Amino acid sequence: MITYNPKDWFTFIFRFHKADTLRKLAPLIFGISVYCWVIAFLELHVLKIPDNSHIKQITVMHTLLSFVISMLLVFRTNTAYDRWWEGRKQWGSLVNNSRNLAIKLHSMLGYEDAAHRSFFKKIIPMYASVLAHHLHAESTRLALDEQEHPELRELNTSQHLPNQVAKLIIQRVNKLYTEGKIKGDQLIILNNELQSFTDICGACERIKNTPIPYSYSVFLKKFIFFYVMTLPFSFALSLGYLAVPVVAFIFYVLASLEEIAEEIEDPFGGDENDLPMNKMAQNIKKHVVEILS
Amino acid sequence: MITYNPKDWFTFIFRFHKADTLRKLAPLIFGISVYCWVIAFLELHVLKIPDNSHIKQITVMHTLLSFVISMLLVFRTNTAYDRWWEGRKQWGSLVNNSRNLAIKLHSMLGYEDAAHRSFFKKIIPMYASVLAHHLHAESTRLALDEQEHPELRELNTSQHLPNQVAKLIIQRVNKLYTEGKIKGDQLIILNNELQSFTDICGACERIKNTPIPYSYSVFLKKFIFFYVMTLPFSFALSLGYLAVPVVAFIFYVLASLEEIAEEIEDPFGGDENDLPMNKMAQNIKKHVVEILS
Amino acid sequence: MITYNPKDWFTFIFRFHKADTLRKLAPLIFGISVYCWVIAFLELHVLKIPDNSHIKQITVMHTLLSFVISMLLVFRTNTAYDRWWEGRKQWGSLVNNSRNLAIKLHSMLGYEDAAHRSFFKKIIPMYASVLAHHLHAESTRLALDEQEHPELRELNTSQHLPNQVAKLIIQRVNKLYTEGKIKGDQLIILNNELQSFTDICGACERIKNTPIPYSYSVFLKKFIFFYVMTLPFSFALSLGYLAVPVVAFIFYVLASLEEIAEEIEDPFGGDENDLPMNKMAQNIKKHVVEILS
Amino acid sequence: MITYNPKDWFTFIFRFHKADTLRKLAPLIFGISVYCWVIAFLELHVLKIPDNSHIKQITVMHTLLSFVISMLLVFRTNTAYDRWWEGRKQWGSLVNNSRNLAIKLHSMLGYEDAAHRSFFKKIIPMYASVLAHHLHAESTRLALDEQEHPELRELNTSQHLPNQVAKLIIQRVNKLYTEGKIKGDQLIILNNELQSFTDICGACERIKNTPIPYSYSVFLKKFIFFYVMTLPFSFALSLGYLAVPVVAFIFYVLASLEEIAEEIEDPFGGDENDLPMNKMAQNIKKHVVEILS
Amino acid sequence: MITYNPKDWFTFIFRFHKADTLRKLAPLIFGISVYCWVIAFLELHVLKIPDNSHIKQITVMHTLLSFVISMLLVFRTNTAYDRWWEGRKQWGSLVNNSRNLAIKLHSMLGYEDAAHRSFFKKIIPMYASVLAHHLHAESTRLALDEQEHPELRELNTSQHLPNQVAKLIIQRVNKLYTEGKIKGDQLIILNNELQSFTDICGACERIKNTPIPYSYSVFLKKFIFFYVMTLPFSFALSLGYLAVPVVAFIFYVLASLEEIAEEIEDPFGGDENDLPMNKMAQNIKKHVVEILS
Questions:
Q1: To 10 degrees, what angle do helices A161-178 and A114-136 make?
Q2: Using an 8 Å Cβ cutoff, are A35 and A232 in contact?
Q3: What local confidence, expressed as pLDDT, does residue B19 receive?
Q4: How far is residue D229 from each of residues D70, D142, D222, D224, D248, measured CA to CA in Å?
Q5: Which of A66, B218, C79, D132 could form a disulfide with D277 if both were Cys (CB 3.0 to 4.6 A apart)?
């Protein structure tokens, strides 16, 4: 994730950061420009299509559909953003629950109980780092795929690590209870935090392994493609060679929206915009150790 | 469900997957094209309607209504997507609760208690597979239909299987409690997971047996039909035979949105985009067995 | 509620179901058509307004406002749909809680305890049917009206039946507790389901007795009315008698949206699209009896 | 609040209720009409601006901005409606919790315990009426204002009444517990309802004392003002004196949306559309007394 | 935060408050006006571009993209508003939990227990003021930044103060429990409030340290910049020097939306529109002291 100052317009407009869609789309924008120039050249100098040709009227289609394509793309970006934000919320929740669990255990365990303290100092932050690793794995992304993946051997053989860590935490707390170190009322109080770990893991897995429906995604891409590919036909007649930058700019806007949506809909990848899970796991470690000391 | 790489534009644009709306709508798009060609032929060569005819102005209606139809369809798709995503969330919740219940029971039951362990190893994943089966059934879809369905005999006679499984789980846990194998505080801690099964089942049934209101659905279809059917009248005059691909493309866009919405609003069917419930039930089985071993 | 197959386009487009807005609005659409024909006749044949008249330019107003009216109506329908869906969710929640309560009581009560079993077999489904009846009553709709309603005598005198049933359930469970038939931990576990009945009833009452704000509703109707009434003035000049079907179709679209919103915003009435509360109460009865047997 | 029949179009369109925005905006609409007439008179008869003047092209600005202004206003209304509906939900929640608390206490307290019964019969509904009074007070609206308000003396000196009532309820329940009249499990069961009072009060205070951000509000008003004020310049040239009703109608639509938003964003005032808090407090009183008798 | 009367239009339109975007953007608007005048001068008097030039047709691009830019900006503002409102809700929740905790402790602690009372009188409001301070700190904003910040020394060394306060509260309550001053049932009842502090802190930190994705932000700024910069080319031909105020107004509207979004998306800064955290902390102090006395 990139932390930035949203009020610094100058940098935004004139620098080309690695995560800037303009930089990523540059080759495509160039390609579209050439395509558009070719169309314009053919229409204006080879075919010499007259100004009152029906072709010029194709604009009416683009106007009628401009609303659908705009809304679809804006909704697409917002749905992707919702997923990204939900992922961030789940990790925020992991932070909160790690802290709360540490604070509660700190007040329940005696100061002299070094063994349990050091166990929890290690195991609570371990959940976050194990989860970060789990979510980066390709096997997690493909967990719901019905096809076979012989190339990913660990998909079927390896254990589910976050579950194992959660098991260790809950087992230990239950042991504290059966040994009488914490009472039943205290066990009840710890329950929220204990079960939250697995809930958070499941929610992150859901975001990771369930992209938006295939039909939706494929339709959107076909729509953008045909929409932009047909723009030069009429624009070359009404705008001449000015159609080249105009079509390029329209393509930049539409493709950027789809590009941004693709990047942020899976907040657990390695993209520039993805959540800094390792940093968050470090912060959890720092705070849990601080609390339990 | 189809797992895919959202960044692979080339495949999206040039392949025609089974779940692609372009493939599904192909016959209809062809039909509309023929219809449009016939209208154009009649207007241009048979009736020879002059260019300044009032008919050409019908476009104004399509422009005025283009907002409504676009917004309606985009909202329709998004409402359908919300249902699909809610269904996915419910199943995610089932995954979480199955795992958490297994982890908790694992820590409460002694290692030697093989009988109970093997009972829960079987019954927890069974809920998921029974629910998957239940949601595929036609009788579930028609549960709220006020008409008689003599053709579906089991609608009124058969038992509600998920309820039976939930009953077995809760009964067994309660027995553990009355026999003193788990204490009251532990029973309270298990409660969330225990009651979640029936809540999840009910939520999935709700999505399954309650489509969007009939009036809304019928209005939308009539609207799309009339909108597209009247397009060629004015377009044939302003675009000539170019009206054929233009109208076909507009129809493709509008109908795709409705088509996608229809497919994903019931995430528990057998469509390509529907949730992989069997795969998820398998995963639950794998994890629960792993935890309770 | 009408259960239907959303993929059967043919039926949707060519049949005129009782709940179809086209059928309901037919007289109004006819009226608007006549009005529009009269305006067109006056402008074209009586006043003989020239083609370059300022009147033709009124279209600019309709274009500028087409976006507001579209968005307002689409949002209106979606807000109404949210209320309808919330009502459905509340009833889904009632189903879940009835089932869960029955399952839990089943596991807590001894098999031989026929008296309590038969009590709960009757009283749990009774809540649903009493609530259905309560929500159909005119007195519930007017519960927040500050005016006097002498014509509705029971408004002030009658008891609140759902409260009475909830009281009976909670009282009986509490008695089980004080008599030692269920323990404190079990009482705590039953609490969620016990208090949900009244929460659900309150939420349904809220939807029933609080329509969208009066000013909003009145503004929307005035806006549609003026918008459609002024359409023929300019359309008659640009479209001639074609203005009649065009205005009729625009009116059909706008009025349908408002009509649908009106129908579904109160999901507890007797409209075709309203929730099948009696059917749901029957289902609850069936399942609760099945569970407690 | 006004309870009405949403299907009675005739009344809506032809009557001018006190809460109708058309009535409230009438003087302003008249003012705008005069302004527009003056502009038209100047342009057409004094300055005699030719038809091909650049001024006529200003329309392009209004068209480009018509989307933004429409979306902003529709979103504004919907945000305001969300606040209104959230306020309603909080009061619905107060109704539910008052009922549930009464039902639970009824089942826990002995029939002969007249003292406690009559205490709760009074104090539970008292919360609702004290809250209604609290939310009407100007001091509640200004609770977060950082400026001094010497004219509102009670702002800093008076006690927070709802807190005092909540304190009395919780204190009494706690006393019942310490005296052994209710057991620990029953105390736990009552907790949800007990803490909900203060949560509801806080949520209502939040809606009351936090309007939408100042910058947003001021921008919207400046935008509407400039947008409408510049409309007549181009419209007078294309529409002649017809610009007067056209501009007036556009103003009516835009200003109505802002007007409605202003009214409903604070649901706890004394406007026609505001929540009938006193009626609701009465209903709570009626039901609580009915339950506890 | 500025508390204002939303119905006072006159003040809104004619005063220029410090938080008014018109005042903030004034220099930029002036700059754009000069730029636009220069373009107009060049096109009209230096290059003498003819009226039928292709340049005039660039407007078609602005029209096609006007939907996207409008929707993007309105959604942007609404997303920012959601963050602002969520921040407000979290602080409202802090108010509620502080009050509820104080009320509960008041009823559980004896009147004579001055020591504990005075401890909680100090420590509960202290959480709010420590949190306010924590959220103002630059180190909180950069907590997730993966870059090194040597200039912010306390980023890595200082303790997390809100955690320390939460620790003190929970520790003390736990001590009351182990000393038998409050019973287990009462401990369970206090749990919600106790764990809410850390949850609220985490949620506020999330809003503070996670701006909307960088790519989204940078794209939006580039888009607005290019959109406005290309407007004068075609407008100068169709509007002459009138293009200057028209472009300036369009820029004012678009930039205001982005400006407002930037301001309110971080509700915990020192901007005019930000939440009055210190005032809220004061109010919490006042009420907690009032309750516990």
A1: 160
A2: yes
A3: 67
A4: 16, 34, 10, 8, 11
A5: D132
Pairwise CA distance, residues B259 & B93, whole Å: 28
SS3 C99: helix
Quick check: A4 and E203 CB within 8 A? no
The whole-number pLDDT of residue C152 equals 61
For C197, D54, D87, D128, D283, the CA distances from D92, given in Å and listed in that order, are 14, 57, 9, 11, 11
Burial class (CB in 10 A: 0-12, 13-18, 19+), B110: exposed
A198 in B contact zone (CB under 8 Å): yes
What is each CA distance from A100 to A204, B45, B104, B189, B206, in whole angstroms? 20, 79, 20, 18, 36
Mean pLDDT confidence for A180-194 = 91
Going by C-alpha positions, the residue among E263, B77, D223, C82 that lies closest to residue A74 is B77
Residue with tokens 């929409």: A227
Of B6, B185, B250, the CB nearest to A61: B250
The residue among C46, C55, C48, C22 whose CA lies nearest residue C260 is: C22
pLDDT of residue B86: 94
Residues of chain E with pLDDT under 70: 1, 7, 16, 19, 148-157
Inter-residue contact B28 to B251 (CB < 8 Å): yes
Distance of CA A202 to the CA centre of its chain: 16
pLDDT of residue D214: 85
Query: Rounded to an integer, what distance in angstroms lies between the CA atom of residue C58 and that of residue E155?
Result: 63
User: What is the predicted ipTM?
Assistant: 0.92
Task: Give just the sign of the alpha carbon dihedral B249, B250, B255, B258.
Answer: positive
Mean pLDDT (whole number) for B116-133:
93
| pLDDT score, position E22 | 81
pLDDT at E157: 62
Scanning every residue of chain E, which has its alpha carbon at the shortest distance from the alpha carbon of D225? Answer: E13
Between CA A86 and CA D111 the distance in angstroms is 50
> B256: which 2 tokens?
């795709």
Beta-carbon pairs below 8 A across chains C and D:
189
Q: What is the mean pLDDT of each run of 10 residues along chain D (293 residues)?
A: 71 71 86 93 87 84 90 89 93 94 91 89 93 87 74 66 92 91 91 93 92 87 90 89 92 90 86 86 92 88
* pLDDT at residue A142, rounded to an integer: 78
Report pLDDT digits (tens) over C66-123. 889 998 898 888 889 999 999 999 999 999 999 999 999 999 988 888 889 999 999 9
Contact D17 C72 (CB under 8 A): no
Instruction: Note whether A213 and B263 are within 8 A (CB).
Output: yes
Residue type, D125: P
**E110 in contact with D, Cβ within 8 Å:** no
End-to-end CA distance of chain C: 30
Interface probe with D: pick from E18, E95, E113, most Cβ of D within 10 Å: E95
Q: Mean of the pLDDT values across residues A114-125?
A: 92
> C214–D1: do the CB atoms touch at under 8 Å?
yes
Structure tokens given for B91? 């199943």
Distances (CA, A) of C26 to A67, B54, B69, E178: 30, 26, 21, 75
The angle that helices A59-108 and E161-178 make with each other, rounded to 10 degrees, is 50
DSSP 3-state of C51: coil
Chain B residues closer than 8 Å to A142 by CB: 3
Average pLDDT of the residues in B133-144: 83
Instruction: Decide: A152 and A138 in contact? Cβ < 8 Å.
Output: yes
On whether the CB atoms of residues B2 and B272 are closer than 8 A, the answer is yes
Which carries the bigger pLDDT value, residue B293 or residue A87? A87
At residue D31, what is the residue type?
Answer: G
Q: Which two tokens stand for residue C130?
A: 């009493």
DSSP E144: T
